[in-house]
Every structure is written in C-alpha cells, then in structure tokens.
Amino acid sequence: MQAESDPQQDDLILAKQEGREALSAWAGWVMAPAAWALHQGIGYAMVPWLCALGTRWPYHALTVFAVGLCIGGALMSRKALRRSRHIRPEHSRMRVRMMALIGLMFSAAAFGGILVEYLPSFLIDTCNGVDR
Amino acid sequence: MTDVGPALRHRDDAEGRETLATIERTWQSPKGFFGWFTHVNHTNIGRRFVATALIFFAIAGVLGLLMRWQLSAPLNEVLDPDTYNQVMTVHGTAMMFLFAIPAMEGIAIYLVPLMIGARDMAFPRLNAFGYYVYLIGGVIFLLSLPLGIAPAAGWFNYVPLSNKEFSPGLGVDIWTTMITFIEVAALTAAVELIVTIFKLRAPGMSLNRMPIFVWAVLVMSFMILFAMPSVIVASAMLMMDRLVDTQFFVAEAGGSPLLWQHLFWFFGHPEVYIIFVPALGIVTSVVVTFAQRPVFGYTALVLALVSVGMVSFGLWVHHMYTTGLPFMGRSFFMAASAMISIPSGVQIFCWIMTLWGARIRFEVPMLWVLSFFAVFITGGLTGVMVASVPFDRQVHDTYFVVAHFHYVLVGGAVFPLMAGLYYWYPKAVGRMLSDRMGKWSVGLSFVGFNLAFFPMHQLGLEGMPRRIYTYLPEMDWGFLNQLATVGAIILAVGFGLTFWNLIYSAYRGTVADENPWNAPTLEWATTSPPLNCNFAQQPVVQDDRPLWSWPERGKRTVVGGLRTDRRETMVTTLLDARPQSVQVLPGPTPWPFVSAVAASVGFLGLIFSPWFYLIGFFGAFVTFVFWFWPRKPYRED
Amino acid sequence: MTKDIPVEVAVDASDITRFAPHTHPLWWGILAAVAIEAAVVANLLTSYFYLWARTDAWPPEGVEPPPLLWPTLILVVLPLSSVTMWWAGKGSDAGRMRQLALGVSASVLLACVAIGFRSIQIAQFDILWSDHAYGSILWAITGFHYTHVVSAIVGTAAVAILAWMGYFTPERQLGVVVDTLYWYFVAGVYLPIYLVLYWAPRLL
Amino acid sequence: MEMQKVTSATGLGTRGLLLFVVLLVSGCSGVQSVLDPAAPDARLIARLSWWMFASGTFVLIVTLGMLLVAVNLQRGGDRIDVSFRTSAIIVAIGGVAAPVIAIIAVGVSGVLIGDQAEGAEDVGLTVEVHGNRWWWEFRYLDEAGEVTAVTANELHLPVGERAHLLLKSDDVIHSFWVPNLQGKTDLIPGVTNSLYTEPEVAGTWRAQCAEYCGIQHALMAALVVAEPREAFDAWLAQQAAPAVVTEHPGLDVFLDYECGECHAIRGTAADGQKGPDLTHLASRETLAAATLPNTPGNLGGWITSTHKVKPGALMPPTAPEQQELFALIEYLGMLE
Fold first, then answer.
1. Which one in A45, A117, A121, B337 has a CA-CA gap of 20 to 30 Å to B94?
2. Where is the Cytochrome oxidase subunit II copper A binding domain positioned along the sequence (chain D) (predicted)?
C-alpha cells in the first residue's frame, strides 16, 4: 500500500518501533506546553496566596516541577530522534524525525520560557499591588 | 463537458472523456435559484465565504472611513456621539468576526482540499450549514446599524457598560446572540478543516509533506476550537445577565466584572493570531512560488506556527495590565508576551533566507508580501513594546494601541490576504487579475496605510485615548488626525482598486493557465477553475512539492479505482497518510439551509425572549435528524 | 507542465473498504465536537472557581450547598447507561443487531431516569439564578449538562428507532459508533461537574 | 506645537520611514503627553519608551535592510544558493538570539521600572477618586480616613509628595490617566484600585478617562493641579469649608429647579449626591469635566443647552427665565 518504492525491511523495522516512537516523538509536543501552561496558570493564580503566606517555596516547587516536565519531554524527544536516525530523507516516515525534532525544540522553548517567567520573582516583592 | 481537460490528458480518448464526464456529473451542483441552496461542494462554499467576507470588509471599511471623517477635525459634527459609538462597535466587531476570520476560513475551505489532493471536505453539508449561519448572523448584525439599534459598547463589550442598566435597548443583545451564532459557523469550519486535514490527505502526504499553508490552517482551526468556547461562555453569561437577571458580572451580588475580561481576552488574544496564522501560510506559499525554490527551514516554520498557536493562549492578561492585578502576576505575562517574537523572528528570517539570492519575480502577490514585511515588522516591534507593563500602562487604550493593532492586523493579515487573492484568483476564476491595477493597488494601499496609521502612534503618546468621538481643539491633535484621515482615504482607494479588479478581471482578465505561477503545490495540478471533482484522479505524492518533483521523476502518481458514479474520496492515516478507506460523500441537499434557518430563528428570538432557546434548540434538532436520517435505498458497497 | 507528465496509478482504491466506522472522518468530527464541549465545561468550571475566589462566602450566607443524594444516584445511572451503550456497540460489531437495539434502548431509558433525578435535584436548589452569582453559575452549569443529556437522548432515540427498523449492519454502523462516543462524553463530563458543584463547596 | 511645523515642512508626500523618524525626534510639550513627564514615575517610563523606540527603529532598519538585500541581490542575474549552514546560522541569530535578548531586556526593564513606577512608599496624602458617567469626583481623606473635602473634575496635589489615589467606581469601568504623571489604572465596580503619583514641579495637567465608558467617554476629563504645600493647604482648607454664600436669589432658583436633587452646595438645602459637588464651583478652572473654561457665559450655556455641549450627558437641561438664569449664574460665580 506504500506509495514509495522503499525496501520492505525498512518498513518492517520501523513498524516494530512504531508504538514506542509514536509516544516518545509526541512527548515534547504535549509535555512542554503543558509544563509552561501549568507554570504560568498556577503561578499567576497563586500570587495573592503567596503574599498572604509570606513565603515563596510553593512557587519554587512549581517551577522545579515544570522544568522537570520540560526536561522529561526533551529526553523522550531526543530518544525518538536518535532511534529514527536511520530513516532516509525521502521516506514518508521522515515525519517521525520532524515530530521528534519539533518536540525537542518545544521543550527547549518551554524551558526558556519558564525560566524567563520565573526571573521576576527574584527582582520584586510578591506583595506589590496585592491590595485585596 | 466536451473538454476533457488536462487532468485526464493521458487518456484523451473516447473512454477517458466518458469517464471524466461521468465523474463531473456526479460532482455537479444543481443549477438555478433553488439549486443554489443545495450546494455542498467546498469550492462553492469557499467562494461564497470569501465573497461574503469581502463585502462585509467593504462595509466595515466604510464605517472606518466615517470615523476618520468625524475625527478629521476637533469637535466635528459628522456623527453624533451615539452613532459614532455604534459605528465604532460595529466596525471592530465586523472586521473581526464578519471579515477576518471568515475570510481566512473561506480561503482555507476553498484551498485545503485542493492542496491536500482531496475531492471535497470531510463534511460537505456541515460546511454549507456553517456558511448559512455566518451569512444570516452577519446580515442581521449589520442590519442593526441602519435601524439605529446597533450595539454601542465597543467590540469587547466590557461589563458593566454592556449590562442592561447601562446599555438599555437591543444593541448588546444583538451582539451577544449574533456573535455567538457566527462563532458556531467558525467552529463548524474549524472542525471540518481539522478532520479534512487529518484524514483526507492524498496518499503519501505524511505530516512533514503538508504545505505550510495547510499547517497554518490546522493551527488556526485548533486555536478556534479552544478559544471560541470561552467567548461563547462569556457572551452566554452576558446574554443571561441581560435576559433572565443572572448575576455573573454584577459586583453587588457576588459577580465580577473582571470575569468577563478574563474570559473575553482568553478568547480575544488567540483571536488575533487566528487571523494572523493563516496569513503566515499565505506568505509562505507566495514566497516559495515567486522565489522558485523550496522554503528554507520547513521544520522551523512548522515549529514556529505551532508555537505561535500555543503561546497565544498564555498572553491574555496583557490586555488587563491596568486593571489593578498584582504586579508579580502581571510580570509573568510580560515575558510571555514578548516571547511571541521568537517564532515570528524565526519565520521572518526563514523567508528572508528563502528569498536570499533567489531570482524573484516581482508579481503583484509578491509586492503585497513585501509590504506585509515592512508593516508587520513595525507592528510586531510596537507589540513587543506594549508587552512591557510600565510602557503599556501609559499607552493602553490610546491611539498608540490602535496604531499597533492595525499594523499587525492590516499588515499581518489583510496584506497577505490580498496577496492570496492575487495569487489564487487565477485558480478560482480561471482568469488573471489585472497586473497594472494590482500594482497601483499595492502602492496606494501601502502609502495610504502608513499615512493613516503611523501618526496614531504619536497621537497616543500625546494622550489621545481610543474610542473617543471627538476631542477639544486645545489638544492639538487636529493635524495628525487630518493626516490620518487623508491616509485612510488613500488606503480605501487602494483596496477599492482591488475590489474593482476582482470584478473586472472575472470578465476581461487574460485566461489563466493550469499553473500560471509555476507553483509547487497540488492545487495547481488541476484545471483553472478546478473540476467539480477537483481531481479527475486523486494524486499520490512523494514530497512537499509534487509539481516540481513530478517532472524530475518523469511520472505523476495517482489513485485509481475510485467509483465514478458517486462521490468518493480517499481516507488516509493521520500521520503517514497511508491509504485506509474510502469515504462516500453526500450530494446536494437543502437540509443545511433549513437547519441554519431554524437555528437562526432560535438565536434571533433570544433577543426578545428566553423561550426561544427551547424553540431554536428543538427546531434545529428536528432538522438535524431529518438531515442525517438515512435515505432509501441505503448505500451498498 | 503537469498535464504532459505520464501517469502511474500508485494506489488502487477498488479494494479498499468503504465502511470503516471506527476510523471514519465523522468519528474524528465528533471527537472535535467533544473537545469544544470540554473546553466549554472547562471555562464554566474555571468561572465557578474564579467567582468563588473573589467572594467572601461561597455559597453566600444562609445558602446550603445542594443535597448529595440525587446527584450521587445520577453518578451511578449515567455510567451504567454508558455500559449498556458499550454493550450495544459490541453487539453491532459482532452483527447481533438485537443486542444493539436492546442496549441502545436501555441507555435511552437510563438517561431518562437520570433526567428525572436531575429535575428533582434542580427543584432542591436552595437559591435562584437571579439571587447571587453563586446561583447563576450553579444553574448555568446544571442547565448546560441537562441540555446535553436531553440532546444525547434525542439523538440516541433516533439511533434506537433505526436499530429496531433493522437499518444497521456490521458495516453500516457509523451512526452507532459516533453516537456512542458522544454518549461517553456526556456521561463522563458529569464527574468533574459533580465533584465541583457538590463536593468542592463542602470540602474546600 | 513644534512637531507640527516639522512634519508639515516635510510635506504630505513624506515616506513612511522618514515620517517615523521625524515623529519620534520631536518631543512635544502637551498638558496630556507621555513624552513630557512631570513626575519621577512618568519620567522613568518615558526614558524606557525612548530606549524602546530607538532599539525598535534599529531592529526595523536592520531587518528590512536584510530583506532589501535579499530581494535585490540577484535581479536578473543567476541565483545564489546559500549553504544550509549559513542560512541556519542567520535564522538562529536573527530569529532566536536577537529576540531572546529583546525578551530579557523587555522583561527585566519592565519588571524593575514597572515595580518602581508603581511604588507605594512614603505616601503622604490619600484621595479617593470616583469615576462617574461622565465626570470625576475627588474626596480628600484625612489620616483617620474621614472625608475632609469633596470636589469634582479638579484634583490638587502638593508638589514633591507622593499621593495615594484610591480608585472607585459605582457605575461602569473608567480609567484614570494623567500621562504626564503616571500610567493609568482602571476604576472597577466592586473593587478599589490604587494609583500613586508624585508631581515634581508646580503645574497643571489633564487627566483623561482612558477606558471606554459610554456616550460621553470622549469628554470625560479633569485637571490636575500641582502646587507647593502651603498653597495646597490653603486650597484644601477652602474646599473643606461650606459654601461662602448661602443666601441669594440664585440659590432659590437652584433649589426651585431641583438642581439640589443631584448637586450639593454644602451649607445650603442642596445635598444631592448624583452630580458634582458645587460648593466651590467658582474656584475651578473648567466646567463639564474639563470641557469648557469656567466663564459665566459657558456656565449659562451648559445649564440651558447641556445636550448640545455633551449629548447624552445625564444632567437634564434646565430652561429658567432669563432673570432667573442670570441670578443663578451670578450665585454660582460667587461660590469661591
């Protein structure tokens, strides 16, 4: 059914890995944005609470967790990328490489994004502007 | 059906002609006035979407000119304040909901099946339903203006201003019901596009071989899917506050005016990118074709598009910097808002590197894209500026922001849209647009646009707030406003020329070839205008630029064995596009129209009485059942 | 130019199935519709918590959180109706059309029971939608889910009628598959709604 | 203004980029301008703005320059193929590295400057600012939080002292904005927001409502007058006192036409709360939310043809006999 005229064993090897690959190639797509969204959304919502609490450790913990998610996503994407190294560029399964590469870059971007958003908490007082 | 057309040239014999004639009969839309209401082919629906959106664009543009006329001098009395506020609200709402989104969706509906080598979209009848919903909703919404009952609370309808107490009358009710209704159309189109892109791609078109435009449409559709619900929830709450006295936004009864802002901007910010993302796809298509080389950084562009989509959901608070939120909370969104500059930068430099040293043909679409670059980058830079909390606290809700978003939206979406019109018009109509008129149109629009909107930056810094119907002579804003008005008129002439060009060239334009620009994507692999069935034989692809690689390979691969006596198209796997099954598509039917009318009765009635909720709900439901009820004889394999 | 290039048939579609209910585009369409509905529910629940966070007393003074009995019964009935729906789908996959008809009808009946319970429970609400934002959001979320159960019932009733008419075959069961998917969503989305509306104000 | 001369000299045909530069270099001295700061907060923000304009212009020129080079490189000649590596490096520098620097710069400067500009330290005076459709009310509070003086559409502040403005609204959302002094903050029903400001020099500036609030949003403004402490104290004492004249034929007209239902003149029977407090109307420079200069003629025009001046304003126009009107104007003119 393949449109390409690739050697059959190529397809066979790939098919065996398909299950694992499918998961790991998408890891960065799911985990990195989720980490960023969690960090931003929860961090934003917890500011008044942090101010009332007078400590920032929940926020630090949240950051560590989010960064961990990003690193996990990056590692899984990298694994998928390595495993797909032998795919020839003209094969349609090149898309596994693309997915994995994008997943890896997503993880990097989310990692950077989380750190940039984390930075202000060191520069300012949590309670500024928390009037209510 | 005497001309077999190039699509079947390999079998330009009696049998080939006969086969094509049968397929074309199968895919033909009924003629005549009543036939019009039964059309379901995506080319028909897409054309209607774009044409309707352009008409709404013209109307909203005239409203913009009216505002510019009023503001051209201090204490002008062209429009009284109430009329001005209605005009302002309708201008913003119409440009966003009635023009920008539907125009992009219309282009997507027209092009995506062609680009992915499908014969139609996955749910042709739903497609038609979406169009009627949009048409009915848009017309009713715009009619409120000549009737003098248009909403006047601004396009973002902040509560409590839009509550019954401060906005009595029907205006805001019309806004909430009709906008929700139109969003239904946007949602149906989004679902439709996602499924079509996921499942109906030509065999061989794995995810990494999809044209960038298709990726952009996919991202746009997902954004619609997740952004629209929040404005639907918000406007439903506002509708209920006004209609049945719920207290969602009433501070005295535990409600919160800020809830509206959060919900609205959680939609409103992605909304801007919903308009802008498909435009990026258009730009890529044009750049590739006129540079005559494959795009540099395919993966990077896909990455950029998807991350624009994702990041856009994390910026909504930057519309609320002045609402007194805790400073640390706001500071998170500062970095996030500036972050959008990374994917934008990556895209711009990928295009620059694609163009670098290429032998570029400076045809009209390419000129629109070049003006897009200049204008959009300026808007993007002011966008990074307003991401900064302290700066935004000065320029928020001033003409600086008006200038910024017109640079981003007109520069980033309308100019590419124009490029798209010039680029794909030959495919859709079969004739080329006039080159001379096109060049004049680009030039006038570019000059007019900058003249109209650049001075607004200065006006904003000089303290001119948004949404004012007049200003005092002592404020010294007169000259720059006059300049802006002159620019707006030039801009209108520029766009007007393109409108005239669209009409004129349909009759007088030179006849277009199958692939007049030598473009690489599949929509150019069929006749201009496309066959009823799009492709006599669905293509099979090996890379992301089949029209350039087929000649190199010396053969063109197609799908064989689809039936000619009913509407069939290939279904392929989601990731690798391996053939999976064949979908049988429905033919012409009036039920989508009937359903849309039933639903619109419900929505329109809601303005007057909550009971119409039930009437509309059950009315639509009954028609849906009729719509889906299997007809005898049941399909056999 | 494309038209001059010789053609090769690379995929022959004559033998590919025309009936693939589990991978049919419509299945994906319903999934997208479910995603939209889920986003609406997420927005409503977030609004619930947002309003809560900005109010001193939630529920307001003198108002009790809704009683637990009926909602908890619904939490039993709705998943049960999903099981019968699943059983019906099994039947239609295997060609046992009677099982399909029975299962689908049972689901409709169970959902009607759930609607009955829901109506009782709405009558027990301590507050009107127009009294306080708490009442507004409580009624809105409840009404939203009520409407969905009703529409799922109407749609499934249509499927049941077709099933009794003998329309469905193992190949021609797309309607069953997509209806089942939607049904799972309507039943499943009740859980977060239940937890937020009935337990959150008691526990948090 | 200076700027206008410059732009008109270059003519209407000026091209976009040139216009950009011309507009930017011409600072202007307005009573409502971001680029003419008169307080430390606004000054910080203005400096930040100039930095951002400059770097933005630089980025624009570089990027468009690259684009121009790219498209002009091979007009008519053979096409140049850049290696993947070179292209990737350029994309990485222009598309990733440069924006990252910009993000960090914008983020850090925004956080530091924003935090400083919203600073709440060393607050002297506290004033409640009430947004109404479509005028401003200012209530001066003493240390105990009691209202000492109420005035409308004219905010006086002592020079060099940080004032705390409590922002409240009872109808729709407004936004209090004095560009020369401080960024804006919204007035939201059900919420009390804070704004801190500190004029450095004596002067008069204009405050404008910046959040669309309905039909007369355009003309909802106020004057902000900064004066030395002694002058301010004298002014506040005067504003806190009841009306100087409490017996006058004009007051009878005022009460006969039910103006007192909405307006208060402290010390008389007029005690309405819906409209601006008029106890010291004559001491104000403007009428109708900083729309008209406070002259007897304008006052008469405002009373009799309110909706010609500001269509949709909530004050009903009143049409007293001519004699009555003169008495009324005379009386209101005495309310120093």
1. B337
2. 122-238
CA-nearest residue of chain B to C45? B233
Nearest Cα residue in chain B from A118: B332
Q: Answer whether D214's CB lies under 8 Å from D220's CB.
A: no
State the complex-level ipTM.
Answer: 0.90
Q: Looking at CA atoms only, how far is residue D115 from chain A in angstroms? A: 7
Which residues are CB-neighbours of D254 under 8 A, at least 6 positions away? D260, D263, D265, D270, D328, D331, D332
| Chains with ≥3 CB–CB distances under 8 Å to A | B, C, D
User: In this structure, are residues B99 and B57 in contact, taking their beta carbons and an 8 Å threshold?
Assistant: yes
Contacts of A124 in chain D (CB under 8 A): 111-112, 115
pLDDT by residue for chain D (336 residues), tens digit each?
333 333 333 333 333 444 444 444 444 457 888 888 999 999 999 999 999 999 999 999 999 999 988 887 766 667 777 888 888 999 999 999 999 999 999 989 999 998 888 888 888 899 999 999 989 999 999 888 899 999 999 999 999 999 999 999 989 999 999 999 999 999 999 889 999 999 999 999 999 999 999 999 999 999 999 999 999 999 999 999 998 888 889 898 998 888 989 999 998 888 888 999 999 999 999 988 888 888 888 898 899 888 888 998 999 888 888 899 999 999 999 888
CB contact under 8 A, A102 and B324: no
* CATH no., domain C45-58+66-203: 1.20.120.80
State the CB neighbour count (10 A cutoff) for residue C182. Answer: 20
What are residue D295's phi and psi, to 5 degrees?
-120, 155
- Looking at chain B, which residue has its C-alpha nearest residue D167? B324
**Does A1 contact chain C (CB < 8 Å)?**
yes
Q: Which of B235, B56, B192 is nearest to B135 (CA)?
A: B56
- Tally the domains of chain B: 1
For residue D253, give its domain range.
Answer: 249-334
First to last CA, chain A: 65
Q: What are the extents of the domains in chain C?
A: 45-58+66-203
CA-nearest residue of chain B to A45?
B329
CATH code: domain of residue B263: 1.20.210.10
Check if C28 contacts B (Cβ < 8 Å).
Answer: yes
D254 part of a folded domain: yes
Q: How far is CA B618 from the centre of its chain?
A: 30
Whether B567 is in a domain gets the answer yes
C-beta atoms of B328 and A101 within 8 A: no
Of D254, D236, D228, D246, give the one whose Cα is nearest residue D328. D254
Instruction: Select the residue of B298, B307, B576 nearest A106 (Cβ to Cβ).
Output: B307
Tokens representing residue B624 in the block:
């849906």
